[in-house]
Write a structure and sequence with these properties.
Blueprint lengths: L8 E3 L6 E3 L3 E8 L9 E8 H18 L8 E2 L6 E2 L2 E5 L6 E6 H9 L4 H12 L4 E4 L2 E4 L1
Length: 143
Amino acid sequence: MNDNIQEGSCVCSVCKEEKDNSHFSFYQDRITKRGEKAGYRLRVNTNCRECTSKNNKVVQRLKKIHLSSKPSPNSPCPCCHRITLKFEIDHDHKTEEFRGWICKDCNVGLGKLGDSKEGLQNAIMYLETPKPLAIQNNGFFKI
């Protein structure tokens, strides 16, 4: 493959279709450094260009509609309550409905947990589960 992109394919994390690497975005200046894949450009993420384009159009449409409700900088994020300089659109990826303006950390965190109550509940259960003791060097500590 040209432009120093590794040959092969990837499954899009949005549409779940396996596509040739040419359907994905790669960093211009970040390359792999070790192993047999050394020297190839790194993939930005596992969202194909078509799905990324569709999502970007939804976000731009929602920004136009809801710009007047965007909180001012140095306001608390409605999700984590931390003071935030820059807010991002939060939307339901299935229904494309606007949910609000939240900080980037919360927006990414919700996405990583599947944008679902179930994902959040699983994370809460994990945090509430007692952790086993582990050995480090010659002492004990809780992990």
